[in-house]
Amino acid sequence: MPESPSATAPTSRLPSLTGLRFAAALLVFGVHAYSFIPVGGFAHDVGHLLLDPGDLGVSFFFVLSGFVLTWAARGGSARPLGRFFAGRVLRIYPAYVVALGLAVASKWVGDLADPIGNRMNQVNGHNLTTSLFLVQAWYPDDVTYLGINPVAWSLSCEIAFYAAFPLLLPLLRRLTGRALGGAAAFFVVLGLLMPLIAHAFVDPAFQRWFVYILPVTRCVEFALGITLALLVRSGAWRGPGLPLASALFTANYLIVNLLPHQVRDTAAVLATTALLIPAAATADLTGARSIWRHPVLVRLGDASYAFFLVHLTIVTTTMTILGRSHDYPAWQAMSLGIGLLVVSYAVALPLHRYVEAPAMRLLRRRPRPPIPAQRSRQPEQIGVS
Fold first, then answer.
1. Dist. CA 33–CA 70, nearest whole Å
2. What is the mean pLDDT of residues 202-214?
3. pTM
């Protein structure tokens, strides 16, 4: 009989979730390639079906972020705050700064190719400051939150999530069983209701920012991830297996463009994401079959953060040089897309290996506080941590 999830949860790495990170990053790459490589006719329609919803991969990342942080918390609680925040900074900032420098350099190259430039990617003191401090998502104007490296607005959200995590985790840990399941359902429904909340209370000019960009709003997905991890770790998760959850997510993804754009742009796949992530985690815990544990996918998933940081810079710079004034034939557009994917990973893999991974290892090298010596081993002391 396979071991229950709750028995192995605190120490399992869950490689399927790493493989799924690659898939989510690929979705985000797809929508950007589709957006910046002009193509017409039937190929455009296919791209609209398969690639246009790819920005929903960001929602997947937000839920996954809450899940893996909770999973990594020892004994079901967050590590000491100083060490936690240091780990988060080392996790995202060194690679981010390198990618930001690459984006600034690419702007210079783009200006040479297109003197008119792109206002969404301009380099000025304001955009550089908000980007360096990762606060751009708190500004409601798109010139700021999409400044320099447009994908970085999501990291601005992640920083806010990290600040909220030491508060959210103890609150949600108080729930058990059905209450946890109810909380997960609540967060899914709340995510779906955000467009209605924005329509009722937010100026129309800022509604998309409120629903899609604002860290407070997107924290709903992060909180959902925390709740799902607690459900799986406690053994209270009752959901479909990985094959069915994958099929439901895929079907959901393929029909999102039929939904009203307010929902499509935000929480269109939130419910099936809430099924897929725990299903993949449970598959790893029970030893069930999972394609996402394949070593190649896990390797690409390990580098998905670096890939996410650099891919749009590479896509936009290349298309600025090549030109977007005409539609490309389908075969040429596909070749361009594959080429940009390869180049993006060719940059991302060394960025992960030589910047991101060494920075993460710095925290592990820090000596742990010494354990005070015990004068005697009384029976009541054995097993106390």
1. 33
2. 93
3. 0.88
Name the H helices within 174-293: 177-201, 207-208, 215-234, 242-255, 261-264, 270-286
Indicate the DSSP class of residue 259. S
Is residue 83 assigned to a domain? yes
3-state SS, residue 172: helix
- Residue 194 makes CB contacts below 8 A (sequence gap 6+) with 210, 211, 217, 220, 266, 267
Query: Domain for residue 382, yes or no?
Result: no
Q: Are 152 and 96 in contact (CB under 8 A)?
A: yes
Print the domain residue range for 21: 5-365
Q: State the total domains in the chain.
A: 1
How long is the chain? 385
Is 380 domain-assigned?
no
Q: What is the band of 108 on the pLDDT scale with cuts at 50, 70, 90?
A: confident
pLDDT digits (tens, 9 = 90+) for 109-118: 766 555 545 4
Question: What is residue 77's DSSP assignment?
Answer: S
20: nearest Cα among 362, 284, 317: 284
pLDDT of residue 82: 80
pLDDT for 302-322, tens place per residue? 999 999 999 999 999 999 989
Q: Is residue 385 situated within a structural domain?
A: no
pLDDT class for 378, splitting at 50, 70, 90? very low
Euclidean distance between CA atoms 50 and 29, whole angstroms: 12
Distance CA 373, CA 365 (A): 22
Per-residue exposure over 6-39, b if at least 16 CB sit within 10 Å of its own CB, e if not: eeebeeeebbbbbbbbbbbbbbbbbbbbbbbbeb
H or E element, residue 136: none
Cα–Cα–Cα angle for 114, 116, 122, nearest 5°? 95
